[in-house]
Automatic annotation (TrEMBL):
Catalytic residues identified in the record: S122
Signal peptide start and end residues: none
Protein name: Arylacetamide deacetylase
Domain (Alpha/beta hydrolase fold-3) ranges: 57-198, 247-308
Pfam families registered for this protein in UniProt: Abhydrolase_3 (PF07859)
Organism: Terrapene triunguis
GO molecular function, one term: deacetylase activity
Entry's family note: Belongs to the 'GDXG' lipolytic enzyme family.
Keyword line: Hydrolase
Family annotation (Gene3D superfamilies): alpha/beta hydrolase
GO-annotated biological processes: positive regulation of triglyceride catabolic process
Taxon lineage: Eukaryota, Metazoa, Chordata, Craniata, Vertebrata
Length: 335
């Protein structure tokens, strides 16, 4: 009897240690989220591209969008890091979007050229924002009506924003994982990852870019809290020369100057309070509004990164359904 109990205790201690992640106070279904998070961490340890496990919810979301909006939904299966590096992902999406922005192609699918939206969450939000900027420059007759950016990743320069600090160890996307995703977008060379982890990866030659991600100017007071703005720490020019992608606005859409933001479509931005990427989205809202772009900003106080992934059983959360409904409802009215 003693042996059995001891084994059980050991097992549960191990499980408890492994499962336990501090979950913010205002989050509902805390235990379910903790278990899902542990599952994610396990998968993340086993395979590098753990967002592959997210294909099922995205298929469902695409179907919901198609049905609710009576829309043609094109879900682009771009090639993934770390197998492929930037700009492959950008080019994959850009090529498809450019192809569909032709009147003849749209006609073939029965699509109204005045009602086109580009949308994405997380890394997909990054690609949506980057592609929207680049097609904006093209001499195409068909324009996007809406870009919907759901907790997007928009900048590589400052990985110590207040949201990175506040949410360093939050579920689903801790800072260490986001740093790994960013660095693996450009290279499997760990020296970039190490430099990014200490936020000293940007060479002094690129110091002029920091004004585009200056949270001291771009964040509302509420999100600055008691954080103190510090000047950037510059790294060696070697990394910037070897992996120029991390200084490229096609990877980090916040790095364009204001003139590149002019003419962008109506923008829906969803941000989550407990998310390292929160301030990327909020700073883009500020920058777009400053140049007169119409922005609808939904900030969800009790949400974590990746909320939209949690809509399929057994890993569904009330939060996932709430956020998905909010976004699809907004699109249904506005697209
Ligand atoms: C960021 O903004 C603050 C406040 O306006 C300013 O003091 C600081 O020099 C800026 N930093 C950069 C790198 O632009």
């Amino acid at each position: 009897m003693g042996t059995k109990s001891l084994c059980l205790l050991l097992a549960s201690v191990l499980v408890a240690y492994y499962v336990y992640t501090p979950i913010p106070e205002n989050i509902e279904e805390r235990w379910k989220l903790m278990l899902i998070n542990a599952g994610f961490r396990t998968v993340a340890h086993v395979v590098m591209t753990y967002f592959i496990s997210a294909m099922e919810p995205y298929d469902l979301l695409s179907r919901w969008t198609a049905n609710k909006l009576n829309a043609v939904v094109i879900s682009v299966e771009y090639r993934l890091a770390p197998m492929y590096h930037f700009p492959v992902q950008f080019e994959d999406v850009y090529t498809i979007v450019k192809f569909f922005l032709q009147n003849s192609v749209l006609a073939q699918y029965g699509v109204d050229p005045n009602r086109i939206c580009i949308s994405g969450d997380s890394a997909g939000g990054n690609l949506a924002a980057a592609v929207a900027q680049q097609v904006n420059d093209l001499e195409v007759k068909v324009k996007l009506k809406i870009q919907a950016l759901l907790y997007p990743a928009l900048q590589t320069l400052d990985l110590d924003l207040p949201s990175y600090k506040d949410n360093e160890n939050k579920p689903i996307l801790p800072k260490s994982l986001m740093v790994r995703f960013w660095s693996e977008y450009f290279t499997t060379d760990v020296s970039l990852q190490e430099a990014m982890a200490s936020n000293s990866h940007v060479p002094a030659e690129s110091s002029h870019l920091f004004r585009f991600v200056n949270w001291s100017n771009l964040l509302p007071e509420k999100f600055k809290k008691d954080h103190v703005y510090a000047s950037p720490i510059y790294g060696s020019s070697r990394l910037g020369k070897k992996y120029p992608g991390f200084l490229d606005p096609r990877a980090a859409p916040l790095l364009v100057d204001d003139t590149k933001l002019l003419g962008l479509p109506v923008t829906y931005v969803l941000t989550c309070q407990h998310d390292v990427l929160r301030d990327d989205g909020i700073m883009y809202v500020s920058r777009l509004r400053e140049v007169g772009i119409e922005v609808i900003h939904d900030h969800i106080e009790d949400a974590i990164h990746g909320a939209l992934m949690f809509i399929t059983s057994p890993t569904d959360l009330a939060l996932g359904h709430r956020v998905a409904n909010k976004y699809i409802e907004w699109l249904n009215i506005n697209l």
